[in-house]
Amino acid sequence: MKHDKCVTYTIIFMILCTACGAWAQNGIEQGRRTAIVQSIEKAAPAVVSVNVIQVQAERVANPMLRDYWDLFNSWQPQYRLRQRQLNSVGSGFFFDDAGHILTNYHVLEDAESVASVTLADGRVLEAEVVGADKRTDVAVLRATGTNLPKCSLGSSKDLLIGEWVIAIGNPFGTLMKDPQPTVSVGVVSANHRRISPSVGEGERLYQDMIQTDAAINPGNSGGPLVNANGEIVGINTMIFSPSGGSIGLGFALPIDRVRRVADEIIKYGHRRDPWAGFKVEDVADMRADFHEQLGVQTKTGCLVVNILTTTPAYDAGLRPGDIIVGINAQPVTTSSDIDFALWNMFEGDLATLAVNRQGVEKTLSFPIKELSK
């Protein structure tokens, strides 16, 4: 009887050990499949390499003339121009059921054509440019195929400083003959970053940017910045680096603005340029005697020097001589502050100006119109 009990206890003990081992193994496997791993699995299949063709002119010495000039001991190279085709690559991602792909404008900027896009599963598809907007650095492509993957777009307005984000792209992917995208993980280092106008040569809306320490490398431009839910919150766009490599200062366009630009490009073939219909000069650049003559009573802001009477801004009460000291609850120091605020808006959005008129503060609001072509 005692022997039977020992055997029973031994069997139970072995079963429990086996179960504990299985539970431990399951726990390890579950621990490996973190939210970050699952997010990558959701987004990565929809990331593509954008393959573009650039044509570059180069000077080439003409060797056929060497023998002739050697007769006179005065060989001088005679140059001719020829074109050289360069293949370059950026990143992008499918974001809807129609085969539309989001990427950066600057990925296509110097391209002769878009040759194709390469999917993570190895497929190479022809792609066409639907439209692009230089100011917001957004471009939309379209590829045709079956069973196309797509990313889920999230929101950039509620990002938390310190939350995990993943930069996905295909740096040098085609050079490595490997279509799989690569990932780098970091956090949201800062939000709503305003980058100096000199970075984009005053022509790019690099404002309200997402800063991340996730590594962004050459070829990552146009790829998605993904949150822990597998949702796209930004487009990886640029880095600050003295060496050209990542030092943890990467920046992404906010997806909320990108989505609106993309919607306009798909609907109209271009982004409708926002326009207010007035011109300004920086108060700080004006001579001191002008301040007195014009009744300027503030040292910062922008003086309205011209305004069309057919604009909503005029209807709202804006007049020449007014000093704009704020726009959409943001201070105005230079004209670029107004430009960037307007570029960030869309037709029908309401612009709100804080105005100083002869020392009296006023608030004026008016809807944005599209700039007539």
Commentary on this structure:
Among the domains are: 152-268, Trypsin-like serine proteases (Thrombin, subunit H, Beta Barrel); 274-370, Pdz3 Domain (Roll). Helices cover 22% and strands 37% of the residues. The protein has helices at residues 2-32, 35-43, 66-70, 105-108, 255-268, 288-294, 312-315, 335-343, and strands at 47-61, 79-94, 100-103, 113-119, 124-125, 127-133, 138-143, 152-153, 164-169, 182-193, 209-212, 224-227, 231-239, 250-254, 274-275, 278-282, 302-307, 323-327, 330-331, 350-357, 360-367, 369-370. The strands form four sheets. Strands 5-4-1-2-3-7-6 form a seven-stranded antiparallel β-sheet. The chain has a six-stranded antiparallel β-barrel with strand order 9-10-11-14-13-12. Strands 16, 17, 18, 19, 20 and 21 form a six-stranded antiparallel β-sheet that branches. β20 and β21 (360-367) form a beta hairpin.
